[in-house]
Amino acid sequence: MPAPSPHPHTRRRAWVEVDTGAIGRNLARVRDHVGPGVKIIPMVKCGGYGLGVEHVVAALAPGRPFGYGVASIDEGLELRDLGVREPVMVCCPVPPADLPRAIAAHLIPTISDLDALSALTRLAAETPPPAPPLPFQIEIDTGMGRAGFPLADSATISARTTSSTSAATPSGSPPTAPPPGPAQTPAAAPTATPSALPPTPPPPHWWPHIRRATTRNLHLFGIFTHLHSADEPDLTSARRQIARFDDFIRTAGGIDPGTLLHCANSAGTLRLSSQTANAVRPGIYLYGGSAGPGTEPPETAVHVRARVALVRDVPGGATVGYGATHRSKGPERWAAVGIGYGDGLPRTLGGRGWGLAGGRRVPVLGRISMDTTVVGVSGDTSPGDVVTFLGRDGETELTLEEVAELADTIGHEILTGLSRRLPRIRMES
Ligand SMILES: Cc1ncc(COP(=O)(O)O)c(C=O)c1O
User: pTM above the 0.85 mark?
Assistant: First the structure.
């Protein structure tokens, strides 16, 4: 009798295993790191980073996150269809014409300019009383450059933040959240002296408009910024961005103490802290991606596996794949595995990636085709055997970082690039 398959749940040619237990434990690690006072908003955009939003929400929900972050209204609607009741923040700018859909689904849209504020104000005016004020977020641009209200005088702010000790530290200590009340003078900061800091800059020109609008039937639910380099070895620019954010929150004036304030992605969450933020927005770490140098690795949460379709013994001088880029140096055993770039296995792994077969590393030979990848095997590999291209096989592992680096990309792209052809199979370790 053949030995039972270690993967009895599927006879598919290729699939993705999503480990909900590992995702839940990665969320718990974030919780332990930031402490109970900081709200967690897991990013579940792009179908839960390509893993199936229904699976990642099922994994995260027992950890009771404050809410979820998505990139579009349609993604927010998908969460509502799944029965998610928590706040859902659309963390990309929402075009004014789409705002009614966001509001109808009780999503929290992000705005980055005064045109969107006007559109929102008009919508709020049309909402019949006694409807509660419409919630929205603003993004402020501290350096990412792709969205967000600009800070008024970046030269002044930059000078202030360079000389300020308010920059985040890599201590990993949880962000503290003093109530962001009325504007504080620089002298209120612990180490500030009038000679050390230039005078408080005036608030940016758009801020009074936001304040005026929110006195009527709009509710400023959150203010956030996004870090561009929190996963880099050098944290100087990320610290500067956080300092700009903190500076704005402290000096703008009129921010309600209940406002959600957030700047950190996974790397920012685990490597930095803000003096004003009261929430974090981790993504990739929850799904098994590193949060950058010096951080504890997350648990592996995703395994990409495929079955061997054919095994061939070839003599020396045989070639394989488009372009015939691999030529056997002597007799070799090749296994054709049913997965290719059409499944989202990056073509750039051709000739330099790895699979795991029977707990051992096996090299990807030649170019990856749309449906097939050939690996060099030895010994007793047979059709139907499973080869793992991401994740663990027994004691061996291909981490998201290793695969991404070999493919010359980032873990986010590896996961979100997994195509619809691969079924996502939920498992719990
Ligand atoms: C606005 C925003 N916040 C948070 C994240 C989460 O980032 P990461 O997956 O690196 O933790 C992203 C991801 O791209 C994002 O766009």
Answer: yes
Ligand 1 proximity of 226 Cβ (cutoff 6 Å):
yes
* Residue 15 within a domain: no
The finding on whether 266 has its CB within 6 A of some atom of ligand 1 is yes
The domain of 368 spans: 302-427
Q: Could you tell me if 52 and 131 lie in one domain?
A: yes
Cα(45) to ligand 1 centroid in Å equals 9
Residue identifier of the C-alpha nearest atom 5 of ligand 1: 265
**Are the CB atoms for 366 and 374 separated by under 8 Å?**
yes
The series of mean pLDDT values per 10 residues for the chain, 429 residues long, is 50 96 98 97 98 98 98 97 98 92 94 94 83 93 95 51 36 34 29 46 86 88 97 96 96 94 98 97 98 96 98 98 98 98 98 96 98 94 97 97 98 98 96
Location of structure tokens 């009614």: 100
Nearest Cα to Cα of residue 377 among 312, 323, 295? 312
Q: Is the beta carbon of 55 within 6 A of some atom in ligand 1?
A: no
Q: What local confidence, expressed as pLDDT, does residue 8 receive?
A: 53
| Cβ(65) – ligand 1 distance below 6 Å | no
Q: Which of 281, 285, 400, 410 to mutate to test the pocket of ligand 1 (most atoms within 8 A of CB)?
A: 281
Quick one: 252 and 315 in the same domain?
no
Q: Which two three-digit tokens encode residue 280? A: 């974090």
Residues 6+ apart with CB under 8 A from 218: 120, 121, 124, 133, 134, 135, 136
Pair (198, 309) in one structural domain: no
Domain CATH for 310: 2.40.37.10
